[in-house]
């Protein structure tokens, strides 16, 4: 009997040990938001293959006041790709090989992580694979970076109830943001950034708004300008009317998208202040909220003269994409 118990105990220990060996513990990934490690040897990086990578992954972002890249690319040759470099969150691995393939891998060296592996026997095959997979890779990287930014917000969230009281919604907003203005059907939240401020505004429009595709852009501009005139004044300049509006020289870009499971429009463009010299980028989401018979509008914009604005605008995007409609939480 004693031997039977001993054998059972040994078997149990072996099973547990084998199960533990199957578990692979991976380090937490690292890296700045929107930063990509590109593992590629110098001769390829400095030639047509590198040019193709840059054209896709460092292309200018739509709607900023000057050209800023989609991702910051940090190139390293294969021989130094080790240690901390393997833990970076987003990696593009490019190599001449006997294989011709391109695919995405998840959590290879750390977690969370995306690794795009691109191989080819010639430069032409590498370029073809880059072109075919670039859009998928960009979407995967952006989704990963949005998720990472949103996880970082959770460390210290703003507990203010203004948005839930006024619009029956919540946003995961870092505690550094504060409510600056609240009126009926309008909330303005902002924070200081180097040389300026980052802002989020929220308001609602009638559910019948924006139903005519032929006038969609004109209607969006009219909406933004009317809200600017009513709620977003500029500097007090004697004899002049100043308020935020849509920059007249640059037409905004409009895309169909989905936010919180609802159909929405995404609008990217430049704002300025009428009769003044202030300007900057904006990102607007116009979200169908049929349950409340309205269009919910969330807009993020920044003002920071002579500074890069990509990362601040990306943070505003990440915040707005955390929107939740409270009636759904009670179901």
Compact summary:
The chain is an alpha+beta fold. Helix content is 31%, strand content 32%. It has helices spanning 2-22, 42-45, 48-57, 123-153, 162-167, 216-231, 310-320, 326-329, and strands at 27-28, 35-39, 72-76, 90-96, 101-106, 110-111, 114-120, 169-170, 178-183, 186-193, 196-206, 244-246, 253-259, 262-273, 279-289, 294-303, 324-325.
What attributes does this structure have?
331 residues; alpha+beta; Rossmann fold; Protein Transport Mog1p, Chain A; 8-stranded antiparallel β-sheet; 5-stranded mixed β-sheet; 8 helices; 31% helix
* Count of alpha and pi helical runs: 8
CATH class of the largest domain equals Alpha Beta
> What number of domains?
2
Shape: elongated
Beta percentage is 25-35%
CATH superfamily of the largest domain: Mog1/PsbP, alpha/beta/alpha sandwich
Q: How many runs of DSSP E, i.e. beta strands?
A: 17
Structural class: alpha+beta
Give the terminus-to-terminus CA distance: 56 Å
pLDDT average, as an integer? 92
CATH architecture of the largest domain: 3-Layer(aba) Sandwich
Description:
- By secondary structure, this protein is an alpha+beta fold.
- It has two domains: 27-153, 3-Layer(aba) Sandwich (Rossmann fold); 162-329, Protein Transport Mog1p, Chain A (3-Layer(aba) Sandwich).
- The protein is 31% helix and 32% strand.
- It contains eight helices and 17 strands.
- It has helices at residues 2-22, 42-45, 48-57, 123-153, 162-167, 216-231, 310-320, 326-329, and strands at 27-28, 35-39, 72-76, 90-96, 101-106, 110-111, 114-120, 169-170, 178-183, 186-193, 196-206, 244-246, 253-259, 262-273, 279-289, 294-303, 324-325.
- Helix 3 runs parallel beside helix 4.
- The chain is elongated, with a radius of gyration of 25 Å.
- The protein starts with a helix and ends with a helix.
- 29% of the residues are buried.
- The model has no long low-confidence stretch (mean pLDDT 92).
